[in-house]
Amino acid sequence: MSTGFSQGQGDLTDGFVPFPADRAATYRHAGYWTGQPLDSILSNAAARWPEVTAIVDAQRSYTFAELDAVADRVAARLAARGLQAGDRVLLQLPNTTEFAVAFFGLLRAGVVPVMCLSGHRSAELSHFAGISGAVGLVITDTAAGFDFRAMAAQLQRDHPQLRHVIVDGDPGGYLPWSALTDPGADGPATAPVRGQFDPAAPALLLVSGGTTGLPKLIARTHDDYVYTAVASAREYRMTSDDTYLVALPAGHNFPLACPGLLGAMTVGAPTVFTDDPSPENAFALIDKHHVTVTGLVNALAKVWAQACDWEPVLPTSLRVVQVGGSRMTAEEARFILDNLTPGLSQIFGMAEGMLNFTRPGDPVEVLLHTQGRPMSPHDEMLVVDEHGDAVAPGEEGELLVRGPNTINGYYRAEEANARSFSAQGHYRSGDRVRIFADGPLAGHVEVTGRIKDVIHRGGETVSASDLEEHLFAHPGIYAAAAVALPDEYLGEKICAAVVFSGKELTLAELHGFLDSRGVSSHAKPDMLAGLPSLPKTAVGKVDKKQIIALLGSS
Ligand code: OOB
């Protein structure tokens, strides 16, 4: 499968940083890595539970056997059109069953999908096309008033190697998606025979979640991604009685494999797709399909928790609601636990791989005060100070990590890799954490902020997350982000961008509140900006870059 590459720019493995042989051997020996291709998750499910519903959306559903057959058909027709094992294709579909069909169709052809999010636009896609050397693009016609075909035309002009554009919906001159899926359309139906296959080679390319700069590409291998899906489903005790709801953009690691769609499939559980995560729509779907597990970003979890006050249908079938993606205070966790579900699970994950989460049945203090513990017994976490030395147990520092599902380098990004990986192969997460050393929270991780999310005000360094924690504590503040804005005298000044829950506060009132909490004078905001909502990234995290652009220009 790693051979035969001919069309895009460079071989798939050019610029891929593999796991070192000794650790790879350890993970195989431990049974984490099984040597199976990623799409074996589908073939296994189709063999064990052929008649069980695999995926559902508002339009249609597929059993595992049907999904397996359509994935074969898509693969066969991609191959007939000249796509080869090792080629890369940008995959950008909304949360529909067709997302899963396309994902498995590409995998079955040995093609490596680049997992774009529906909110990405030409700047991101052009960047992904350039780095990956993608030869194709799978899109929908239009969504949320945006014409993806027009974007495709521009991408093709800038990236001539992007030859295959496939459109779900009105194709507008491109290849219709139905030409690949429709049993009645021309073309073969049997997937190409899998050639030489390397389970340690990239199976898919995820995009990094950082809110600074353009995302990087993250190559996840068959071995490490199958392990992620299998182990996370197991740790969440998923069974064929569960149903998973994809409420976040399906191409994101969190709803894709943590346990998400792929984890659900490993136990024969159905997955429901929706593009509308509003409480009104989501609660009705949860009720209709008896959804038991879902994953949300913090802001969405808070909206769902509030909506439980007035929505006529409540999501009572939910057994696990994973909440993660950005920092959550204990107060926010308590609010979700009390109002939305006792099944709250905090999850601290990253496209780069490592997952930490609280487990069903964990004591309430673990659920409230920590972001869980590592998924794998072989995750090796180090917490270091600014000199790279290990901090004392229980102290804060930057999290460095390596393990059976953590990358060893970004894809085709040598410069970033020199900064982001240690000589021993640890990924420098940039996250400020503490790992509790003793007591009831021992072994659990608390994320306290981002190492670089600091404001240099005058001669002082102020932690944005420390200030945010104080802001969140104010009953009149619904959401808050502390950002640095340029200042002639101070270098940087502190701006608190907030969403008020009721009456607006003045800066003086806010200072009074912060004084009462003992916040030092240099760490108090110089500016208070009330916003109707905070700008979000494509997956729904608060986007400080956009806040700075918005406020810096006003
Ligand atoms: C998830 O993945 P990404 O790649 O979009 O973002 C990773 C980054 C982490 O490095 C961390 O800075 C932040 O997002 N993060 C959290 C967090 N979960 C993620 N920060 C504080 N508390 C948390 N619970 O966001 C992701 C991937 C898989 C599962 C869940 C989330």
Structural features, described:
By secondary structure, the protein is α/β, with parallel strands linked by helices. It folds into three domains: 21-224, 3-Layer(aba) Sandwich (Rossmann fold), CATH 3.40.50.980; 276-450, 3-Layer(aba) Sandwich (Rossmann fold), CATH 3.40.50; 454-553, GMP Synthetase, Chain A, domain 3. The chain contains 18 helices and 27 strands. The chain has a nine-stranded mixed sheet. Strands 4-3-5-8-9 form a five-stranded parallel sheet, sandwiched between helices. It has a four-stranded antiparallel sheet with strand order 19-20-21-22. Helix 12 (298-307) links the parallel strand 14 (293-296) and strand 15. The termini are far apart. Mean pLDDT is 96; it is low at 1-8. 5'-O-[(R)-(benzoyloxy)(hydroxy)phosphoryl]adenosine (OOB) is lined by residues 208-209, 253-254, 258, 324-327, 346-351, 371, 429, 431, 447, 450, 539. 5'-O-[(R)-(benzoyloxy)(hydroxy)phosphoryl]adenosine binds at residues 208-209, 253-254, 258, 324-327, 346-351, 371, 429, 431, 447, 450, 539. InterPro entries: AMP-bd_C (IPR025110), AMP-bd_C_sf (IPR045851), AMP-dep_synth/lig_dom (IPR000873), ANL_N_sf (IPR042099), ATP-dep_AMP-bd_enzyme (IPR050237).
